[in-house]
């Protein structure tokens, strides 16, 4: 049995991928500007994340379930996403995604590049249409921290052997909890408080940080 050497847990929207998927859904619903404004304020830490999520998801009521295929076609991985995951796996790491976005798209992204763990939100669908509600546990900043701890424990890792990365205010607690916390092209509040920075949208720079700290 192979021993896991470390764990990277990262955000998805504006970290693993270039886009904010909720904003793309909003555009398809014809409320793109309104949704994008709420997203931006939530990411800066100006709004409660769950309230902001509920407000944005409510605008999607009535969209057909097929919207996920349309939106998925518009999502782009940030540079070297697959290369980062492959190199981490080569080094004996597991990789997890924690997302305030939605399983309907995040699961497909994870499968495409070989991610080990996923925790995201679920959009409710009835009779082939979005209801404008989420169901199940909402992925808040506290849930992101909990998943970092749970996945580390599952692999017999100390938190000092973990890496966490994201761009928004709801990523800060897990970034500060991990052994190596990285702000990725992040909002000002995250840049100010994260131990490490990546300022270009190149995910492979994670490896340079890990080599620097000898993880």
From TrEMBL:
Which chemical reaction does it catalyze? O-phospho-D-serine + H2O = D-serine + phosphate; O-phospho-L-serine + H2O = L-serine + phosphate
> Which pathway is this protein engaged in?
Amino-acid biosynthesis; L-serine biosynthesis; L-serine from 3-phospho-D-glycerate: step 3/3
Its EC number(s): 3.1.3.3
The similarity comment for this entry is:
Belongs to the HAD-like hydrolase superfamily. SerB family.
Is Transcription regulation one of the keywords? no
**Name listed for the protein in its UniProt record:** phosphoserine phosphatase
Key words, A-Z:
Amino-acid biosynthesis, Hydrolase, Magnesium, Metal-binding, Serine biosynthesis
Question: By its UniProt entry, which SUPFAM superfamilies does this protein fall under?
Answer: HAD-like (SSF56784)
GO MF, one term, reads: hydrolase activity
Superkingdom is Bacteria
Q: Provide the cofactor list for this protein.
A: Mg(2+)
Record-linked InterPro entries: HAD-like_SerB, HAD-like_sf, HAD_sf, PSP
